[in-house]
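Q: I have three molecules that I believe assemble together. Could you output structure tokens for the complex as a whole instead of separate predictions?
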Amino acid sequence: MYKYIIYLFLSLIILNTSFAKTNNKINSRVIQQKADECLTCHFDNESNNNEPAHLFKQDIHFSKGIACAGCHGGDSSKDDMDEAMDKNKGYIGILSKEERYQVCVKCHSDPNKMKSFGSNIPTDQFEKLKGSIHFIKSVNAVTPIADCVTCHSVHNIASVKDPRSKVYPANVPSLCKSCHSNPTFMKQYNPSLPVDQYEKYRTSVHGKQNLKGDAKVAECVSCHGNHDILSVKNSKSPVYPSNVPQLCSTCHSDKNLMDKYKLPHDQYENYKGSIHGEALFVKQDLSAPACNDCHGNHGATPPGVESISNVCGTCHAFNAELFAKSPHKKAFDKLKYPECITCHSNHKIVHATDELLGVAKNSKCVQCHKNEPNDKGFMIAAEMKSLFDSLESADKISLDLLKSASQKGMDVSEADYSLKQIKQILIQARTITHLSDIKEFKDKMDEGFIITNKTKQAGLDAIDEFYFRRYGLGIATIIITFLVVLLYIKTKRIDKKK
Amino acid sequence: MTYKKKNQIKNGEKTRRDFLNILLSGGFIAWVGAVVYPLISYLRPPQVEVVKVNSVNIGKITDMDKDSGKIIKFGNDPVIVIKLSDGEFRAFSASCTHLDCIVQYRKDYGQIYCACHNGRYDLHGRNISGPPPAPLAKYEIAIKNDEVTVYKPSA
Amino acid sequence: MKETFNKKIYNALNERFQLDNLVSFLKHKSVPKYRNTIWYYFGGISLLLFIVQVATGILLIMYYKGSEDLAYESIKFINAKVSFGWLIRSIHSWSANLMILAVFVHMFSVYFLKAFRKPRELTWYTGVILLFLSMGFGFSGYLLPWDQLAFFATKVGTDIAGQLPFVGDFLLKLLRGGEDVTGATLSRFFGLHVALLPGVFVVFLSLHLIFIQRQGMSEPEDWKNKKESEKTTIPFFPNFTVHDLLIWLIVINILAILATFFPWELGPKADAFVSAPVGIKPEWYFLFMFQSLKYIPAKVWLIEGELLGILGFGLAGLLWVLVPFWDSKTPKGKRNKIINYVGIFAISFIIIFTILGYLLD
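A: Yes, here they are, computed for all three components at once.
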């Protein structure tokens, strides 16, 4: 109790002396801040609201009681300029680019200090920044591309939740744009990096919502991270190809969030089970399409119904080209059927089998084509499927024949070799089905049937040859044995004659 | 009696020996057959599969001089390609329809000429003088990106 | 009728070529008949197999192409495309091996029956030369299909020749036609196999046969003191000839069976940049030498082990060839047991090391 009284007494004395020394009118806040001579003096000498002392009064640090000297050093209690800005008392003045982030680090990397100001924000920002591309890359090997103040501003730093802050979600795109849309600036660090991300972003659904002030939609840092931004080529980056699906799923698999936008939330689950997901996750094939390869990244929008074949066609070029020439293209677009997706589905694209084709119950063709006399498509679908089936079974027959011939020790390597083309022909024919033209299709399949017929004949011939050799040997052996017996009799007779 | 018996035995032996010899020579002939048949089959050259050729690229337009001809291999068939003085390309079968000699382009005649029996064809492949009984078969020419390709005449 | 026709032809030929002389010569020629007569057939078997080799070899040349690019393909072509090509090639390969086997048996039987003794030393020498030529045929012919095994066997084989002192390097290059086994080696071996060796072989074979015809069949040692009437013989013609024919037919049938049921294989095409296949070994008739070289330590005194082995084999071979020289007892009618011991040692050595070569890899 006695202790507190002494504290109170002491503080009263300090207050008294400061009152005594300042004859100027006193801002109400200054009282809270105790007496900050730096601010007082600079505030009076400034001409407008954009100058440091004016700005600083809006700063979150100011509201936490951190004075100018907290960053610039010196003694803010002295109203004498020489005394206040005495280098011996640690006055730094204007912070150099090399050291300015160090003042921030002094508190923001120290959990105890942060707690003492009643803040519970994380304290690992600098650790993260140190590894980020903004910190590592530098033109002069001394100053990083971006440090704390680049994004958080200098004297009017606000909480990320404060709409006035430069890093408030709705403000982030403009913040990043200030460098990333500047070709001259970007060229210093990565000449090949595009500078149109902001333009694209504004065309995307995310960008449009963001512009309306929606803080829930994705902006730059939602995907790229904030302090720990890494190059897209770094496998730890959230935008590294194989990380993209998970990244998008953080929002798009969130049922509550998606329900607000009336969007489905099962795309990620579907994608994971698709052939593309398998290629990306299991086979680690980075060229396999992730979300962004179809939807775009900065300009993320679902492709329109009529342009789907162009999207898929970036990889499946032949199929897209053939589809564009097929009668289906026109019919699908007219009926607003989403081209490729109509048969192959979108996120859950599974390995296409011949079962998609034909007129069986689960084939795709019968969803539109019916077994009616004037439905040519039905007949073509049935014929294509049956040709596939018969070529595959012919291939198997030939293969078995050649196998049994080679087990008998016959050399059928040539036929074996030509039979290998069947696989290629089947792949090509499957591509040609997208043209839905029975003549083109038949021409390709006929190449296959010629080969299966030839190899089948080769297999049969080889097996015949095998038995022919055995029988030939049998006949020759009979003849020789017969001769041997006769000769034996003859020798006996000759020997006896003597 | 004994004489007769002896004679019979002798005759019997003789017939038996004759029979044996006949069998032996029969067997020998069969054996020779068993050896000669594979030999003859072996010596008959096997059918070599003809590679099916539909087109042959003969290089760039500039590879051939104007008003000249050359023989190219089209699968197993010789084909004569002629570049006329106006730069047009033509191709014909190079087997003379008379006795299958290989024809040539004669600059001095401006004709296709067969040296074997002085057969002549005009630059459309028509037989115009000498023994050839029929015109030369025409091949088709396609030029794409300055590359000249000879095609089999579509039937 | 037929008989008279045959007679007519015979008479016509006889008139011109005096066949009677030949017939009476053949009729008077006789083969001793005793328990070892069976060995007398192996010379004939070797001759038959050589004839088979010549016949099938000529047939193979009609399709074989002796070049680096085409050799393997042409053998494949013979095997797969030419009708009965598989048979001709398999018979050629099997017959080659059986011929060397027959020649070996023939040589050892002559050795143990002491048929090399005076006056038949030259027959023995030509015979040994024929054996070496046969092995040369085998070695050169093995490369011709140009498959991997052949390629590496030739590499190893010629390497051993290169170990010889003084002449080794020259010999190696002479055989290979360069530093390495390449298409040049194939050309050389092809020439050797179809031109040089056959020519030389025929010369020595003719000498060998002429010597036999001039001197007649060797008689067993203990017949020296027998009277002519006590010797049991069978006439060479027609009796022995018919027996020969009988055996030849059987051998031909064996060849056909081997070729049909165990067709000679063709490995993958030779490629100088493929590592040598595991368990690579030479043909069986070189295996005992190859195997025993493995047991000699790397260095014996100051001489390299391998070189010592090669020189050892050379010396042993020379002694073996010169047996008519150092066997002084047999010509005097005495029993020379050392000859038998040496022979038994040689046979067991060859058999044991060949088996070792096959069992141990």
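A: One point stands out. Residues 15-33 of chain A have pLDDT under 50 and may be disordered.
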